[in-house]
Amino acid sequence: MRKPLIGIPCNTPFKTAPRSVACNRTYVCSVLDNGGIPILLPAIGNDPALAAEYIDTVDGILFAGGEDMSSYYFGEDPVPQVNYGSSERDCLELALAKLCEEKGMPMLGICRGEQILNVAFGGTLWQDIPSQIGKDKPILCHGQDMSIRSELTHRVDVVPGTFCECFGPEPLFVNSFHHQAIKDLAPGFRACAFAPDGIIEAVESPERKLTAVQWHPEELYVRWPRFKAFFENFIAQATEYANNK
Known about the structure:
The protein is of the alpha/beta class. The chain has one domain (about 5-240): Rossmann fold (3-Layer(aba) Sandwich). About 25% of the residues lie in helices and about 20% in strands. The chain is built from 6 helices and 11 strands. The chain has helices spanning about 25-30, 50-55, 85-105, 110-120, 130, 230-240, and strands spanning about 5-10, 35-40, 60-65, 105-110, 125, 155-160, 170-175, 180, 190-195, 200-205, 210-215. Strand 1, helix 1 and strand 2 (about 35-40) form a beta-alpha-beta unit.
């Protein structure tokens, strides 16, 4: 039985390393540590055909965190707080999500990854939580200090009978580094966890072999082993896919 190859879309970080193609090391480690082989998929150009070139080389896609997603893809103009994105990465990841659905390939989403999967299948986003939601009601801190990525910031309430039960029965606390979030769920998606202020923190679409969270378990599973199951379950699905092609 061979280990699955897990594609991780990434892009050029124009602000910090304009000559590089990169993703955070913790995404790579989360695949390696849980039985998969990571393959970085650079987003170069705005041609969705690139996704078709990549898709047959991998057995699952991990849609990672990163830049804001363009509101163009869900029919809105950008609010002032949205000022750094990557059209190349948007284009690649939206195309990859559709191809995964066609092929029955497992998908895992983290932070931006949850958001882009929701939009790929017909949902929408809050572009900026503080200005769009916080003006009407109190909200939690969804953007903790980026230097302490393994600290737990706020509680999430798990919906019974969803994949989030894999984290165990104890109260669940997570880290948080985002200002965008799911607004309208995509058809066929189910919300699996909520922050106390109502923000959707996890979703699933079992028929698409899709699970996603708004927090960053790749930064937590070493210190907090309960988050390891998120990756183990995904790698198990990808392993089955890889060995039944």
